[in-house]
């Protein structure tokens, strides 16, 4: 077998999703610790600074820097080559977060045991299910007071609509947290908060029903555990790897990332259960990752990372074959043959130039302003164009007022470029041109970023007037006369840059009212980029 196929088969590319503060950063650090990518957990990113940045311009810059250096982290563990994709979950939550999930083959969902399923978990989960990728659940912070375990599982099943299958089961929580019971091996891994989780902990294993366990966790907890396991064996879904891979069943693990408890067990099971790079849909059909020819698609563009050079980096996910620095490729949308410049990869905090990379890997390349989100890059002999990336529904809208009308050209250039990177979406009033621009964003921080960047990079001063709309729907009917649609008073008709018609609503209930009033109207939550 060619060496490149082995390289591809050992790749695991996944994203970690969570609501802010559930423990995503902490879990990522601990995973890197096992891979030897960092020596001491606690150095993935300057979290404190990232967290407090709201509208301080310097902080925004810093934050953008941080989200770049940690966009993807690669490390080796137990014969696997692991790529972790970062999905920023804090104030800089944006479309980027969603798009990153387009580049992953599976997702790890971190849930705070005392909070259960939270708002952002739901949003991110929805994108994962849209792609049908496997989802693994890590219920974190068991060293703190936690919700009832059965209730947590019920919540995941009812709120998110995915079946659960606990791989292990917690014994107590908070001060009484004693460890987890492994349902496969029928053994207990005892909780020892050694060294505050800085180093990998040793495992102590004893069997259920043994006297040793009685003395270890006490008769009361031992009895409770036996009852729970009996109940669980009768009630929970059977483990079925096909269901897991179809994204219909989530294996559930319990642990405490901070104290590094349950992390390695999780990692080992996860690596066994998850898949190597998945085939990708292209317009021409499904592309096998083991195909020899290199192909990739752009899922993220980050501009002006270094102000002095005004550089732009396009991040692409390799979908098939092997990439070699200096090779000639075809940029399908641009219709041009080219060499990818300065290909680079992230290793924890460092960026390094790559000589070769394989399907499943993410590389960043220098972008002289030619790539757009969703573009395909492939070997010149290949005929492939990957399916576009959906445009996610913005939830915040503002009207943009330009302060200095003399700078119209710079303004249009700046706002269009920033929109091209996918940080914001721009719309026009229905029936007008570019004179009235409405900006839509997924996370409010993007408004600050837009204002700041227009000022610092394009010398244009703007004022943003917040609009009350929160819901957006693309009109799917091509033959409809939008002017004649009957809408409610809190609904606005707008157009995107590709002249597609849309409706924005203040209240969600107006969506149904508008659908009721206009027979045959078809609305969709996602646009296509
Ligand atoms: P995030 O990336 O999902 O936002 O979460 P992050 O890892 O930053 O964790 C949020 C807070 O929860 C942090 O505390 C972190 O130390 C804590 N935490 C994470 N995992 C566990 C766990 O298993 N048990 C307990 N008890 N706490 C956990 P912080 O005080 O907000 O920040 P820091 O000062 O510790 O950095």
TrEMBL record:
Quick one: which gene encodes this? prfC
Q: Which residues bind GTP?
A: 18-25, 86-90, 140-143
Q: Where in the cell is it found?
A: Cytoplasm
Q: Which SUPFAM superfamilies match?
A: EF-G C-terminal domain-like (SSF54980), P-loop containing nucleoside triphosphate hydrolases (SSF52540), Translation proteins (SSF50447)
**Which UniProt keyword terms apply here?**
Cytoplasm, GTP-binding, Nucleotide-binding, Protein biosynthesis
UniProt lists the family membership as follows: Belongs to the TRAFAC class translation factor GTPase superfamily. Classic translation factor GTPase family. PrfC subfamily.
Superkingdom of the source?
Bacteria
Its Gene Ontology cellular component terms are: cytosol
CDD domains tied to this protein:
RF3
UniProt keyword annotation of Nucleotide-binding present: yes
User: GO molecular-function annotation terms?
Assistant: GTP binding; GTPase activity; translation release factor activity, codon nonspecific; translation release factor activity, codon specific
Q: What is the documented function of this protein?
A: Increases the formation of ribosomal termination complexes and stimulates activities of RF-1 and RF-2. It binds guanine nucleotides and has strong preference for UGA stop codons. It may interact directly with the ribosome. The stimulation of RF-1 and RF-2 is significantly reduced by GTP and GDP, but not by GMP.
Biological processes annotated in GO: regulation of translational termination
- Stated name of the protein: Peptide chain release factor 3
Q: Where is the Tr-type G domain?
A: 9-278
